[in-house]
Design brief:
This protein has 228 residues and is α/β, with parallel strands linked by helices. The protein has helices spanning 33-48, 58-65, 76-86, 104-111, 137-148, 173-204; strands at 19-25, 51-57, 90-96, 122-129, 152-153, 158-161, 165-166, 169-170. Strands 1, 2, 3, 4, 5 and 6 form a six-stranded parallel sheet that branches. Helix 1 links the parallel strand 1 (19-25) and strand 2. Helix 1 packs across helix 6. The relative contact order is 0.13.
């Protein structure tokens, strides 16, 4: 007797889709400590979540957009990378400290990102510098930038200085612990963001959640216009 076909798994039991993680490294040289920090964060994240990683290195992409003033002037490869940023489930934004801030090309790349594309997208902030004195770049430069985009910057960022690396590899135990702590503190927000995004997508497809309060329906789907 032929056994009946196995029913499909319920959504809650199905294998979770990989998280689309896009990392932007604002370093101007390759290889670099910033690239190594990004790789270490991605490796640690892959230990706790299924991810699909994509790394954008400004050192490689920069010559293709450095002279552009508007998005329609961009090379096709740059446009593809911008779409990757705008469709990410989680963004890792990392830059070396340069003239007391992030690099100019890092900022110029985000100048082309659509203003509302990153609303409520979780962003893990990271930076590298020559000493601990530059650690406030996370709060004074990177967090305000992504506040403009109304992104969901995670509570803890990751700052690393020169002595945290050996041969451009993360080797300092304290830095490795900071990476783990940043991810652990951010996980509830990451999961909440993905759950809300899926809820909105279901509503757009006409599949409504009965347990959503009417006054909250669609609230996260419309971003607030903070700037003209």
């Amino acid at each position: 007797m032929t056994p009946p076909p196995t029913p499909p798994l319920a959504p809650s039991l199905a294998r979770p889709q990989p998280l689309r993680v896009v990392a932007v490294s604002g370093t101007l040289s390759t290889p670099s400590k910033t690239d190594a920090l990004v790789d270490a964060i991605l490796d640690e994240l892959a230990e706790v979540l299924p991810i699909e990683r994509h790394v954008i290195r400004v050192s490689e992409l920069g010559p293709l957009f450095a002279g552009a003033l508007t998005r329609d002037q961009l090379d096709e490869r740059v446009e593809r990378e911008l779409r990757a940023i705008e469709s990410a489930d989680l963004l890792i934004a990392a830059s070396p400290v340069y003239r007391a801030s992030f690099t100019g090309l890092f900022k110029h790349l985000f100048d082309f990102v659509e203003q509302y594309a990153l609303v409520d997208v979780p962003v893990l902030l990271a930076a590298t510098g020559g000493s601990e004195r530059h650690a406030l770049i996370l709060e004074h430069s990177l967090r305000p930038l992504f506040g403009f985009f109304q992104a969901l910057t995670l509570p803890l960022g990751v700052y690393a200085h020169a002595s945290d690396f050996t041969d451009r590899r993360v080797t300092a135990p304290l830095l490795q612990e900071r990476i783990r702590n940043a991810i652990a503190r951010g996980l509830p927000l990451i999961r909440s963001s993905i759950s809300e995004k899926q809820r909105i997508e279901r509503e757009l497809l006409g599949e409504r959640d009965d347990d959503v309060a009417p006054e909250l329906e669609g609230a996260a789907a419309t971003p607030t216009r903070l700037y003209s």
